[in-house]
Amino acid sequence: MGNKRRVPIPEEELMAPGHRACAGCGSALCARLCMKALGKDTVVVMPTGCIEVVTTPYPETAWEVPWIHVAFENAAAVASGIERALKALGKEDVTVAVLAGDGGTVDIGFQALSGMIERGHNIVYICYDNEAYMNTGVQRSGATPYFAATTTTPPGKIWKGEMRPKKDIPKIIAAHGAPYVATACVSHPQDLIKKVKKAKEVEGPAYVHVLCPCPPGWGHDSSETIEIAKLAVETGMWVLYEIENGEFRITYRPKERKPVKEYLKRQKRFQHLSEDDIEKIQRMVDEQWKELEGKE
Questions:
Q1: Which of 27, 86, 252, 274 is the most exposed place for a label (fewest CB within 10 A)?
Q2: Structural domain spans, the chain
Q3: pLDDT tier, 2 (very low <50, low <70, confident <90, very high otherwise)
């Protein structure tokens, strides 16, 4: 991502300051950047989750656009109804966007999301992925990475933490035939904004999956959120790519991938790992890169 490819970051703030997110919250930064890309003519649909909790303690709100809170399981279904209602009213210049956490996307809300994609609704669906149910006690979700410690996957003598690989939702959404699927990270704001803008312009369903470090859940200092996010990208733990009308493209390739150990050792949730455990994760990352590079 050289300077020539960077996009300007709009100054307008559509998620107002004064919300109650933790210092260094990657998900709050994600929501703020996404709104800069989506613009004021947007209706935001949000299921229960971290950002819903911290931005709308009744009777307050941090949203400067129409915003609706729905249940965990039906954000994509509600957004589908709003999109069709706006179309019936002739207001097709209004963007309908879902902003949901990993629990509301990869687990509880997946059925509605699958239906939304299958029916071809013109909606931007953004998943802010902090890799667990963070605001209710750091319980694992389907997006929790391999070997991560959570309150429901505590490491012990036998278990190493989460023993299932992270669910590959972007890949699953792409298999639905969505015209635009992308991954992004809060450490790369221009890339994130560029992808959300592109998702907004797509005719039909678009999906953007954003990695968002969580200081209390991941166990790092709040001042290190961006540094940790950058390490996720530079080590290959998180790959930035997009799939446009079926064409796959890696959008950022580190000059030389750093060892995953540099990323894992900075977080309390991986402190229990042995050198053998870390080597296993390194092999998984290497294999993933090999698979993704083979798609280009």
A1: 274
A2: 26-294
A3: very low
